[in-house]
Amino acid sequence: MLNIQQLNNKKLALALWYKDENGEDQVTVYAGVFCLHEGVPFLDRGKDAKKLEIKSDWLERIKEVENDEMRKIFLGADYSLSLSVGNMSEEQENNSEGSKTGFKLF
Known about the structure:
The chain has helices at 4-7, 68-73, 90-94; strands spanning 11-19, 25-37, 40-44, 52-53, 63-64, 79-84. By secondary structure, the protein is an alpha+beta fold. It has one domain. The chain has a six-stranded mixed beta sheet, with no helix packed on it. The longest helix has 6 residues, at 68-73.
């Protein structure tokens, strides 16, 4: 796992994987800056976008972008974080199988 201080102020891409209305796998990539605020990690996408808290159990999923081809896909980011998103069932919410982010795909 990367050192959290090593990530601070580095460009981070967030890849959100989901199923579209036809059940096909889709991915949307957002880029921003990994930042710490009072020790809590966030993805800062700029003044006009909502900051996304990076949950502690997501940190181990952050990977260094290793080559130029992948860097293009990840919008020039140094690091990437891939997450699966979608609607959560009541059971998943109650069993902590997922985390609500409030992040909207468009």
